[in-house]
Amino acid sequence: MFPDKKIPMTDTLQAQHAAIMREVLASAHRNRHLQKGRPFAAAIADDAGHILGRGVNTISQTQDMTGHAEMEAIRDCCHQRQLPHLQGLTVYASGHPCPMCLAAIVAGQAKQVFFAFDNADAAPYGLSSEGVYQRLGLQLQPPPLPIKRLDLGISAAQLYGDAPWPSAD
């Protein structure tokens, strides 16, 4: 849905982004299998890689349709920092942010977003937000901020389906 904007990456930065995304994916996996929630998680970090906010999808537990992982991470980050914005921060999401979450990320002035799985990955599991983008008539090209997919070698079937989760070797 979004063309990749160029985000400069050094090997150190790439490793930092990958480490945070691995934590996000592990949280999404735990949320699905231990808390019986939806398989989504998010984190917000500064340039040094310090995680300032975390969230998992809480819709199943709270019956609150705004309980998306990114929204929970934004709430946590803003509460922890006692600041009502995300200026200069990076959002990491297990799935491509839905329109509600992307709007909050943009309104909060985050610097960039990384995600692991897009709507095409989520669609076979009934977890795509593509239909919402279409119903709202959102044409987000170019995207409102740099947004890039990070591939960590974990498949959508491992997070959303029943394929075995990678061992922690």
Mean pLDDT, as a whole number? 90
Within the CATH hierarchy, at the fold level, what is the topology? Answer: Cytidine Deaminase, domain 2
Give the uncertain stretches in residue-range form. Answer: 1-8
Given the helix and strand composition, which structural class is it? alpha/beta
Give the full name of the CATH homologous superfamily: Cytidine Deaminase, domain 2
Descriptive account of the structure:
- The protein has about 170 residues and is of the alpha/beta class.
- The chain has helices at about 10-35, 60, 70-80, 100-105, 120, 130-135, 155-160, and strands at about 40-45, 50-55, 90-95, 110-115, 145-150.
- The protein has one domain (about 10-80, about 95-160): Cytidine Deaminase, domain 2.
- The protein is about 40% helix and about 15% strand.
- α4 links the parallel β3 (about 90-95) and β4.
- The protein starts with 10 loop residues before the first helix and ends in a 10-residue tail after the last helix.
- Residues about 1-10 have low confidence and may be disordered.
Summarize the structure.
With 169 residues, this protein is an alpha/beta fold. The chain has helices at residues 11-33, 59-62, 69-81, 99-107, 119-122, 130-136, 156-159, and strands spanning 41-45, 51-56, 90-95, 112-117, 147-149.
Write the layout of secondary structure elements.
Layout lengths: L10 H23 L7 E5 L5 E6 L2 H4 L6 H13 L8 E6 L3 H9 L4 E6 L1 H4 L7 H7 L10 E3 L6 H4 L10
Parallel strand pairs: 3-4, 4-5
Antiparallel strand pairs: 1-2, 1-3
Features of the shown structure:
169 residues; alpha/beta; 5-stranded mixed sheet; 7 helices; globular; disordered N terminus
